[in-house]
Amino acid sequence: MPETHLLVVSGDRREAADGTTRDVIAPATGAPFATVAQAGPADVEAAVAAAHGAFAEGQGAWPRTSATERGRVLARVAALLRERADAVAELEATGAGHPIGDARWEVEAAARTFEYYAGFANKHLGSTIPVMDGGIALTLREPVGVCALIVPWNFPLLIASWKVAPALACGNPIILKPASLTPLTALVLGDLLVEAGVPAEAVHVLAGPGAQLGDLLVGDPRVAKVGFTGETATGAHILRQSADTITRVTLELGGKSASVVFADADVERAAAATPMAVFGNAGQDCCARSRILVERPAYDAFVAAFAAATDRVVVGEPLDPATEMGPMVSAGQRQTSLDYLDIGSGEGARRVCGGEVLDRPGFYLSPAVVADVDNSMRIAREEIFGPVASVIPFDDEDDAVRIANDSDYGLSGSLWTGSATRAVRVAKRLRTGSLSVNSHSSVRVETPFGGMKRSGLGRELGPAAMDHYSEIRTVHFAED
Ligand code: NDP
Prior knowledge:
The chain is an alpha/beta fold. The protein has helices spanning 41-55, 61-64, 67-83, 85-96, 100-120, 156-169, 184-196, 210-218, 232-241, 267-279, 296-311, 331-347, 378-381, 397-405, 420-429, 462-468, and strands at residues 3-5, 7-9, 12-14, 21-26, 31-37, 128-129, 136-143, 146-150, 174-177, 203-205, 223-229, 248-252, 258-261, 291-295, 350-353, 368-371, 388-394, 409-410, 413-416, 436-437, 452-453, 456-457, 470-477. The strands form six sheets. Strands 15-16-17-14-13-19-20 form a seven-stranded mixed β-sheet, with helices on both faces. A six-stranded mixed β-sheet has the order 10-9-8-11-12-22, sandwiched between helices. A three-stranded mixed β-sheet has the order 1-5-4, covered by helices on one side.
């Protein structure tokens, strides 16, 4: 009998008001391994009312807790995550299909996120401003109010931590809404927040159907801020829903990031690093370098080396420490990748390797390299969110920049070159929120992260997140 995981409402574990539950499927087996309570309107009302009461126009227990003490509480969250790291990582690996090594890294990265914002809580400073009419003008940083934090299934705990930690550091109550496919580690995080000392009324984690809960949360005037990560279409819907109430919104959305490899780069190194840049988390990564642009003189050598490195990726059970790529999150997500592989073949692209459904239970798909892709093809334009890499040739610097920027998205990207001056020139022209030169890493807790164009609105991580979870108020003291 699978274990039932309850909602977190006002820091307490409870069943859904109407008793609804849903199975949680393990991607490695395709079978249920847990059930989870499903929040409905009554649970949303209970959470929003409690969170709104906990904020109390900035006079509630958490917003009035000193910033230093809030920091101490967040540091305890980081410590608790590390203390329970093995169990949390195993739950994430089982529920999301992540290789256990990756899942351990994600728990540690979530702990570092809480640590970073623990240190930031009492260093989020206002300013004094010289003004023409005399007196003293200063700014105050104040919490924004109830924050609804809606997260996807691809990095369930990590992406939750990117929102929860700065929201709490600023003094806001939170309502966390995990994805229906992967709700379990978010619920555990809710327990840890309360154990660390966040007031119970400020902590709510509501698993349940996104379209319904999302509309209830986003449209509620008591919710001041929505932090969302997910599909661009869902983000656009949230933006529309938030218009009447002028709810503050940050959106982290889709991507179709380019890795641009010039012939003057260390092409072998670039090719060896590329598989995990696009097939990490089975390609279900908004920063996946799913378009790989290679300068023509290096093109054939790159494709051969990249395909050879891809064939060496160890696809296997999430809990096996040797595994580098686990299953996809669901049968539907795998089918989307298979459909795009067919679309690519129909468009004239050449499958070099991979794209096979593995003959075993679960949602496994071998990583696929597709070459001779033109940037006008659908596989180059649309986010696949699976282990499918499109390799595109280019002629020169201008051509590379033109192709890389010819996308609705602008989240992340890489640039591989041996020339420092070219690195500077091209980096300045690429329209992406993050860019890595001669590496594939995109995200650091200390630096802002987010998208240009349809990849998002606002920035997470770094100091920028503190601005998005607070309001700046100006107070002027007259001197006569
Ligand atoms: P979705 O947009 O479908 O879902 C994301 C979250 O939103 C889930 O919790 C979902 O709940 C909820 N949701 C669904 N419908 C609504 C709605 N109408 N209103 C409010 N919330 C809703 O995205 P996926 O889960 O499929 O995530 C994959 C996407 O996330 C990819 O496109 C990817 O690029 C993007 N992403 C972006 C990142 C970034 O930082 N830019 C990082 C990671 C992923 P439920 O699960 O119950 O449907």
